[in-house]
Amino acid sequence: MLTDTYVPIAEEIEAYALDHSDTEPPLLARLNRDAHVKLLRPRMIAGHLQGRALKMCCRMMRPKRLLEIGTYTGYATFCLAEGTDPDAEIHTVEINDEMEPFFRTYWQEHPDRMKIHPHWDDIRRVLPQLGPEPFDLVYIDADKRDYCAYYDLVFPLVRPGGLILADNTLWSGKVVKEDATHTDTQTRGIMAFNELIRNDNRVEKVLLPLRDGLTVIWKK
Questions:
Q1: What is the tally of structural domains in the chain?
Q2: How many alpha carbons lie under 13 Å from residue 6 in its C-beta half-sphere?
Q3: What share of the chain is helix, strand, coil (3-state, %, to 5)?
Q4: 37-51 residue pLDDT tens
Q5: d(CA 35, CA 80)
Q6: Does the keyword section mention Methyltransferase (predicted)?
Q7: Domain extent for 88
Q8: First to last CA, the chain
């Protein structure tokens, strides 16, 4: 039963959720702090709460072959790796090779680094090199303008029963603004992707209001 006596603000809710979730591993906490000191857009990292959710998703699904589009710092990559079995392989693709030194600083220290195979190139050039085996899980967190293209690109490569996760699908709330269709191309890209997924009968889907929006897509 809901009461109207008190409505906590979002920051309090997140703090409570974090306090009642697994703690952030020390290596990731250090990465998080380092990103806020050295990077222009530290908010782009998955962060503590979403990172634990990604790990839990892998714990439950036990994927063996994973693809990540958009490595950035590697924070989400490392969370995915934490939740997978020792024989899993994670291919993470980042077009911005300026992030490689930052990523490698933490990758070389991570206990699951042998699972992780980084690629510094465009996903369209990388995919043909990864072999014909299907993916169990794909995580999309790259250029929002290309989300629809990424989805169309990877969908045939995901096995039936596999998952596609898409980050930032609420896009700071811009998707619900009245003038959203007239705003920036990133917002339009996210809105087009959300409509594409909503109308795709080949999948089951749920858009979770976790952090900046996380869409979970299950391929039938």
A1: 1
A2: 5
A3: 50, 20, 35
A4: 998 888 888 999 999
A5: 19
A6: yes
A7: 11-219
A8: 35
